[in-house]
């Protein structure tokens, strides 16, 4: 049995590929770009279980080359994360095309196969930027605003309806605040997590700058995110068609700095003036994942940051 992961050379998707291969699965990665040396090193212990296919989601013919691979499950993670306002305005059509037409093309391929499950990788962004509640559950009503959030929610609806019409099981997962190995700037992902920026400063020997240290943020180590996705994918049966995947703990910036200083005693921290009112992160609660599937994260804040810094240093990843 093979599992297809679209966008498999990207940040979260490459960690899904690694986790599935580590579990003994045969994985097919389909992506517009070939795997980098960094990615090949990341999955090297399980490389014989991974097949990379280069192609464009917007070409049904290129995508259908995957039909020869005996695919039994699909994880659709390819996406254009165009969150910055200048990118959203300048590449609006591309965001819609890749995120909606691309999803439709993968669903069209799926209906030609006898698949066991189609899992769509969505985002906590579907809940919107100004949700009044600080804790979001799967019962929280979606309020997407940006093109990225709108196209993610539309793709959730397309996924569910295609499954109903063509008789294959589907589920969507909404991710919250991942950080960790393989996060980098790409042509389809410019925004980066705070912890990626701060750990980058550490490996480059630079100070970090921080404003209000009492602001709380929520982060999830990406291998826990991938583990949660695989738990949904591997479940014999599912009670819901949407699951939040967010395993991080809420921590103030002061606490994060304390953990980083413990891991890197020479860390320098500079105060910077606030550009506007401080804004904390919202907590995406993965109650269905924890309660119904019994999933438990492997990493807390310290162990996630420690492993991430070790990976950066071992690979001389200074970006």
Word description of this protein:
The chain is an alpha/beta fold. It folds into two domains: 2-178 and 221-245, Rossmann fold (3-Layer(aba) Sandwich), CATH 3.40.50; 180-219 and 248-282 and 299-314, UDP-galactose 4-epimerase, domain 1 (Alpha-Beta Complex), CATH 3.90.25. 39% of the residues lie in helices and 18% in strands. The chain contains eleven helices and 15 strands. Strands 3-2-1-4-5-7-12 form a seven-stranded parallel β-sheet, with helices on both faces. Strands 6-15 form a two-stranded parallel ribbon. It is globular and about 55 Å long. The chain starts with a strand and ends in a 5-residue tail after the last helix.
Question: Which descriptors apply to this entry?
Answer:
globular; 18% strand; 7-stranded parallel β-sheet; 319 residues; 11 helices; alpha/beta
What is the topological layout?
Layout: E1 2-6, H1 11-22, E2 26-31, H2 37-42, E3 50-54, H3 60-63, E4 71-76, H4 85-90, H5 92-111, E5 117-123, E6 135-136, H6 147-166, E7 170-175, E8 178-179, H7 194-204, E9 208-210, E10 216-218, E11 220-221, H8 222-234, E12 242-245, E13 250-252, H9 253-263, E14 269-271, E15 283-284, H10 287-293, H11 301-314
């Amino acid at each position: 049995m093979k599992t297809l992961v679209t966008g498999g050379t990207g940040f979260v998707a490459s960690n899904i590929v690694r986790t599935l291969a580590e579990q003994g699965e045969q994985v097919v990665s389909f992506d517009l770009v070939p795997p980098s040396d960094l990615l090949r090193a990341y999955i090297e212990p399980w490389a014989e279980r991974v097949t990379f296919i280069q192609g464009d989601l917007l070409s049904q013919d290129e995508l259908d080359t995957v039909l020869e691979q005996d695919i039994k499950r699909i994880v659709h993670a390819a996406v254009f994360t165009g969150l910055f306002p200048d990118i959203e305005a300048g590449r609006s059509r591309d965001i819609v095309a890749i995120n909606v037409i691309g999803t439709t093309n993968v669903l069209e391929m799926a209906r030609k196969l006898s698949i066991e499950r189609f899992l769509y990788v969505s985002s906590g962004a579907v809940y919107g930027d100004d949700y009044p509640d600080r804790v979001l559950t799967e019962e929280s009503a979606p309020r997407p605003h940006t093109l990225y959030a709108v196209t993610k929610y539309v793709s959730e609806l397309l996924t569910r309806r295609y499954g109903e019409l063509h008789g294959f099981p589907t589920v969507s997962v909404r991710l919250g605040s991942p950080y960790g190995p393989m996060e980098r700037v790409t042509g389809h992902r410019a925004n980066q997590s705070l912890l990626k920026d701060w750990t980058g400063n550490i490996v480059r020997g630079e100070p970090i700058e921080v404003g209000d240290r009492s602001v709380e943020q929520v982060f999830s180590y990406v291998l826990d995110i991938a583990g949660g996705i695989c738990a949904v994918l591997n479940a014999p049966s599912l009670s819901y068609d949407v699951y939040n995947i967010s395993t991080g703990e809420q921590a103030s910036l002061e606490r994060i700095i304390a953990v980083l200083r413990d891991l890197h005693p020479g860390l320098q921290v500079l105060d910077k003036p606030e550009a506007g009112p401080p804004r904390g992160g919202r907590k995406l609660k993965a109650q269905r994942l924890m309660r119904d599937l019994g999933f438990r994260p492997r990493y807390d804040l310290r162990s996630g940051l420690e492993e991430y810094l070790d990976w950066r240093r071992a690979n001389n990843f200074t970006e």
